[in-house]
UniProtKB/TrEMBL annotation:
EC number: 3.1.1.-
Domain of life: Eukaryota
Protein known as: Carboxylic ester hydrolase
InterPro entries: AB_hydrolase_fold, CarbesteraseB, Carboxylesterase_B_AS, Type-B_Carboxylest/Lipase
SUPFAM superfamilies listed in its UniProt record: alpha/beta-Hydrolases (SSF53474)
Pfam families linked: COesterase
């Protein structure tokens, strides 16, 4: 893979946007890998993507030796670096391929790499969970002797603020008759992955976390043959924010990537928070709140100050900012969290805008939600309709007018006061109370809030995504070329992140 971001100017000598250059190089590298694989296939039909008997994968910059796990029957590679550590001056810059190393020593890939710095949502007394900025690693699970198998790439959830790639994919691989190669990836989180402002855009990139993921997908395209995977049969999958990332890759570059990075996708409970443009007032205010928490100025040019700070200071600043949010939140209408924005480079539209155009990457989609998505994220103190309305206006939907709030209440009818002593039980889906009124977690106005949150954040995005992949729209391909399937997991309790995901 050629180094990305090898040039920083365009022909007229003016500065190039780092993210635009990254996307251009990403497309060129993935296209080159695809064409090279096609040429090899044409020259030698017997050539296959297969593991070396030594289980050593030579990446040009490092060599990693996998191992056989006798308890699972799979070959495993852990802690495979896919990009240069984004520390110091490389913070908030696009991911870059490590420089080539001749005769690189073989590294035993038996341990997971460090997790990325974490930014947890606010819950009472939740601790700081430290991480390591040198965290851009992949992990592989493959049947012995795998050759030309489909590839499943797992993108972890966690609200773009927490999580890691240490999920053991052995069970799902074995449950499917060892029929694919599984990959898990890590990407920058919290302020390290999603710091936003006009200054960050000018000096580096916003949405660094989603660019890490895209870079990893291009890496898989280039190198998965050495692990026994077929680069033309890649499925990306995730749950919650991982599914939200699947959604963002589906709309990336206005849906013009086709099957370049992946062919199929699976999205479980896709998480869709508010999406602003990178330079709007709220992201900019968030930028300065983070700067101030890190001991830098609260206005003006602060990028150089932030880059100079040590990782512990920045991790504590990220924690401090996110811990100012309301119960269960990373994001609100104040500068207290970090998540994807419209960057005009990789994410050029809001998903709702992109879905309407029907310009979507990939060909096939499985998407769905769980029956009780919202319970973990809604305060337990909502007992009256006034409580509910105040929560909607201040935390959940602060940009809506009172008339719009009333419309939401009208389509989610419930006059009951929350009864903290019960009853709590699932509805039967046919008669009696509905999920707007009752569940195993709550009743009355509390349950009403849970249902509104669930539909706005997870359920409706899942339906929109399914519709975009199953309908013909302006500029979209013929309906027969794309297919979507929708599911709902309802086995009680079926909470967010439950077994259905």
């Amino acid at each position: 893979m050629a180094p990305l971001n090898s040039a920083n100017t365009i022909r007229d000598g003016s500065p190039r946007d780092a993210a635009e250059l990254f996307v251009s190089d990403l497309i060129a590298n993935a296209t080159e890998a695809e064409q090279e694989q096609d040429r090899q296939g044409q020259k030698k039909r017997l050539l296959s993507c297969a593991q070396d008997a030594s289980l050593v994968a030579d990446l040009g910059y490092s060599k990693y030796r996998g191992y056989h796990n006798p308890s699972t029957g799979l070959n495993v590679w852990r802690g495979v670096c896919y990009a240069v550590p984004p520390t110091g001056e490389l913070r908030w810059q696009p991911p870059r391929v490590p420089p080539p190393v001749l005769d690189a020593p073989v590294i035993d890939a038996t341990s997971f790499g460090p997790i990325c710095p974490q930014a947890l949502p606010y819950f009472p007394s939740i601790p700081l969970v430290p991480g390591n900025e040198d965290c851009l690693f992949l992990n592989f699970y493959a049947p012995p002797g795998a050759a030309d198998l489909p590839v499943l790439v797992w993108i972890h959830g966690g609200g773009y603020g927490l999580g890691d790639g240490t999920q053991d994919m052995s069970d799902i691989t074995n449950a499917n008759d060892k029929g694919f190669v599984a990959v898990t990836l890590q990407f920058r989180l919290g302020a390290f992955g999603w710091l936003l402002s006009g200054e960050v855009k000018r000096r580096g990139v916003v949405n660094a976390g989603i660019l890490d993921q895209a870079f990893a997908l291009a890496w898989v395209k280039r190198h998965i043959c050495q692990f026994g995977g077929d680069p033309s049969q890649v499925t990306i999958t995730g749950e919650s924010a991982g599914a939200g990332a699947v959604m963002y890759h589906g709309i990336a570059v206005k849906g013009t990537l086709g099957t370049l990075l992946f062919k199929r996708s699976i999205a479980s409970s896709p998480y869709l928070p508010f999406q602003y443009s990178y330079d709007e007032a709220l992201p900019t205010a968030r930028y300065y709140a983070f700067s101030q928490a890190a001991g830098c100025p609260s206005s003006g040019k602060v990028y150089e100050c932030l880059v100079s700070k040590d990782t512990d200071t920045l991790q504590r600043a990220s924690y401090a900012v996110t811990q100012q949010a309301p119960y269960g939140y990373w994001w609100v209408s104040s500068p207290r969290a970090f998540w994807p924005v419209t960057d005009n480079s990789y994410i050029k539209n809001r998903p709702s805008q992109q879905f309407a155009s029907n310009k979507i990457n990939g060909k096939n989609l499985l998407v769905g939600n769980n029956a009780n998505e919202g319970q973990q994220f809604v305060p337990t103190t909502l007992t009256t309709q006034d409580d509910l309305v105040n929560w909607l206006r201040t935390a959940q939907l602060p940009n809506l007018t009172p008339a719009q709030i009333n419309t939401i209440l009208a389509v989610n009818p419930n006059d009951a006061i929350t009864n903290t002593t019960g009853p709590y039980h699932e509805t039967n889906g046919l008669t009696g109370p509905t999920t707007v009124q009752l569940s195993q977690a709550a009743n009355g106005q509390h349950q009403r809030a849970i249902n509104i949150y669930a539909e706005a954040t997870f359920v409706c995005p899942a339906y929109w995504l399914a519709a975009a992949y199953s309908q013909t729209g302006k500029g979209g391909p013929a309906q027969s070329t794309r297919t979507a399937w929708f599911y709902q997991y309802s086995v009680p309790f079926a909470s967010h992140g439950g077994a259905g995901s």
